[in-house]
Amino acid sequence: MPYKIIDKKELAMNEVWYKIHAPHVAKKVQPGQFVVVRAFPNGERIPLTPVTWNREEGWITLVTFIRGKTTMRMANELKPGDEILNIAGPLGKPAPMKKFGKILAIGLITGIVEVFPIARAWQEIGNEVTTLHVSPNPMVILKEEFEQSVSRHIVEGFDLQPGWGMKEIAQELVKRAVAKVNELLDSEHWDLVFIVGPAGGQKAIFNVVKEYGIPMEADLHPIMVDATGMCGACRVTVGGEVKFACIDGPSFDAYKVNWDELIHRTGFYAPLERLALEHYLKQLQAQGGEQ
User: What span, in angstroms and rounded, lies between the C-alpha atoms of 234 and 232?
Assistant: First the structure.
């Protein structure tokens, strides 16, 4: 089945939006589920979250954060009219659709992409949803869409400083997120906290939330390969039991997650990912392309 790119645009720094013809996904996808995309022959499989979809017209939208070889290659080489090789899904369990009450849904950097369909659906069934996006200012996205979809949308942005790398950005991200969440939990009553983002940031927020005893769900991002429960790469320990994020999640009770194990496993292939990106950048340079 051809997965034609209907439209494509840059939303913000390092963030690219794709509108793709994928009728089998659009027909069945529910908030909280994801797809696995293989854009090129011999390319890696990457999990992405449908942000919006149209069941009648048969399209979905996806947002990629350019952080490695595959997402950079997609941004550089794919254009409207081109086709994605494979899109598998929908996968994972849908988010529970019930009335929790007052919900704080947090997205760290591009984690806000996954928050959007869930928060909008929770709002539509009668919850009072506040969304919080913590991000460098050049990477703030979907602000208008959130403001039209939930009770309140808060952006906690910060400027990037000269010389900052990913380490410094991550540190500032966590500092800002912890301070803002502390402020919100201290001043208002909440029935549920939900978070999507890097595991280290999720753990830091959980350490704040648990002091208030508020129920918390975390959308986990372990390494994922086949996303059908066969490979075991996405295993996480939840409540002392091994779970697979692809079929048992991706959302879990934050109080039961082994955060240290998750953080360790998530960074397992980081050196190889850096090498793959460096090799691709060298290819671009050799071909006269731009980095």
Answer: 6
